[in-house]
Amino acid sequence: MSDVKNILLAGVGGQGILLASEVLSEVMLMAGMDVKKNEIHGMSQRGGSVVSHVRYGEKVYSPIIPEGEVDILFSFELLETCRYLPLVRKNGQIVVNNLKIAPPSVALGQREYPENLAEEIRKKFPATIVVNGLDLALEAGNAKTVNTVLLGALSKILDIDQALWLQALKKMVPERLLEINLKAFALGCNI
User: Fold this and answer.
1) What is the pLDDT of residues 97-144, one digit of tens each?
2) 128: left (phi over 0), alpha (psi -120 to 50) or beta
3) pLDDT tens-digit profile of 148-163?
4) What CATH number belongs to 5-189?
5) Which of 18, 32, 74, 130 lies 20 to 30 angstroms, CA to CA, from 48?
6) Where along the chain do its domains lie?
7) Pairing relation of β-strands 70-75 and 49-57?
8) DSSP characters for 68-121?
9) CA pair distance 2, 188, nearest whole angstrom
10) Would the pTM of this model clear 0.90, i.e. be above it?
């Protein structure tokens, strides 16, 4: 199973993680790979943790990424990134949005949001790509396109034809939102 690659998407409900995993899976299918996907989104409507496993390769037998075998942690929030770092293999890659969303314990004043998380992540994984997703989404014209900005950043480290990414976006994103999402994707590609 050494040909199987594993991408773990992590974030908070409402960030577009499920759409991002759908687009990513579609890209891999169009590239001719076997793809398996699994989503865990328990209390996502209340801002809870959302995780999606995407596995692809010549033949994939299970949608669940084995512990310690995440090749790419693709994360939409800094604290959620830290939660899943133990699952990443030693030479793994991190693509992370620099967004901070206070969990309930922080919002209630019971804890403080940890400082310097991006730096701490880079200490463990020096090739980490930190994306200012919200600013780029706003530049594209809509804050809700952060997930598409991040897909653009992810596409830079995957050896997949850019045309397939654009085809997948055209297939998965509603037509009325396509132009702004294509712009967001291009901005993510150029970080």
Assistant:
1) 999 888 777 788 888 888 999 999 999 999 999 999 999 999 999 999
2) beta
3) 999 999 999 999 999 9
4) 3.40.920.10
5) 130
6) 5-189
7) unpaired
8) T-EEEEEESSHHHHHHHGGGEEEEEEEEEE------HHHHTTSS-PPS-HHHHH
9) 29
10) yes
